Amino acid sequence: MLCAPFQCANTVKVKEFLLKHFLIISEVIAVVIAFAWPLPGSKLSHSTISLCIVALIFLFTGLKLKTDELKSVYKSADVVLVCCATSLCITTLIPGYIVHQLPFDDKLDGPDDDSFSFGPTELKLGIILFNCAPATIATGIIMVTGAEGDVVVAVAVSTITNIAGCFVTPLLFSLFVDAEAMKQDSTKLLMKLGLSLLLPLFVGKVLAMSFAPVRKFVKDHKRKIGLIQSTGICVILWIKLSSSVKKGTFELIALTDILILIGIVIACHCLLLLLNFIVSISFCFKREQLSVMLLLCSQKTLVLTAAIATALPEQIGDSALILLPCFIAHPLQMLIDSFLIQPLKSSPHFPLCVPWFCAKCRAAEETDRTEDYEAGKDNIDEVVANPGATGINMDTMNNDKSTV
Q1: How many CB atoms lie under 10 A from the CB of residue 117?
Q2: pTM higher than 0.85, yes or no?
Q3: Considering just the CA atoms, what is the radius of gyration of the chain in Å?
Q4: What's the Cα-to-Cα distance from 341 to each of 86, 117, 259, 275, 294, rounded to whole Å?
């Protein structure tokens, strides 16, 4: 049955909208199902299905991981190094320390006295875990491309930080965890992360590098693979939420706690943007490199945070509550950064002008002009002092000067 042109066009638009926002829509569906009918998901919470899903996600991540671009970034190695250090350290430790100082409850039933609280401590741990994660793999690169930034540097930074993040993120997160369970079960946690993260990532990369049909398959079905990964993340969310709803955990969380959580998440991302902007102007980054700092290094990946939260010991806290800030922060960071794409694309310089930075650049330009002038002056003095050595006839130059 044929459809009218306008109907076909609308169908295509709806399909593109659903595919573009598949992760967010799937998250909403997972939350609704978990609260409406938590029994099926809670039955799966004690099995190893979550770790198997994480392993599958990172197998596909290894298949899609691009390491060829690392060979062509040697000219921008300093920029890549700064971006990686910012993504893994600066945007992790500073927000993590600030959030760690905020008043959260150690118990779900609220504080023992009448002191003010932002909610259960699991929400705090979720915010810190999300900020400890490396840069995004796909979303940030797409935004950098839209802003006409340095895509090669963006791909290199995303690749390096996500490989290093498998080791660095758990270590950074452990700095902010007070529970002794993290120290007691550290070996078990590392084994879980190794089997569910590193091994599938390595296997996927080896398969992509060794077999051309695998690379072709990944290239031809890149979007479908991304949808499978998003579905896996949402299945993990559904299982964890269903288990917590069955236990009655969310009955003790007020709406004000969720609103405060959203505010803290937005404030943290704005802080990351500010920190990366300060670092960019401190190193005199160009507009293309600034786009990488703001649109990639300021974003945090959801895949690794979901994987680590799944592997955390139960003594640390409810994994669903730890995941909640991560699933809230991920779409919010994309929404905020989407407003920066057009200003970065249309402006040949920085969106904001910092006086001391401009003075620094002017001083550098003045130094270059002075050096060029001194070099030119030395060449002229050498010609005048020894014209024969340079092959210049001074009599001809004098005659030409008289003619003029």
Answers
A1: 16
A2: no
A3: 27
A4: 20, 36, 27, 18, 10
Please report, as a single letter, which amino acid is at residue 56: L
Query: What's the half-sphere exposure (Cβ side, CA atoms, 13 Å) at 265?
Result: 28
- 329-365 CB burial, b ≥16 within 10 A, e <16: bbeebbebbeebbeebeeeeebeeeeeebeeeeeeee
> Residue 283 phi/psi, 5° resolution?
-100, 15
Residue 144, number of CB atoms within 10 A of its CB: 27
What local confidence, expressed as pLDDT, does residue 72 receive?
Answer: 67
- Is residue 135 a contact partner of residue 155, using CB atoms and an 8 Å limit? no
Contact 298, 273 (CB under 8 A): yes
CA distances from 287 to 149, 158, 238, 292 (A): 7, 19, 41, 9
Looking at the predicted structure, is the pLDDT value of residue 404 above 50?
no
CB contact set of 83 (below 8 Å; sequence gap of 6+): 153, 157, 292, 293, 296, 297
Averaged pLDDT for residues 162-190? 77
H helical segments located in 221-354: 222-247, 255-282, 287-295, 302-311, 319-338, 341-346
Quickly state the pLDDT bin for 361 (edges 50, 70, 90). low
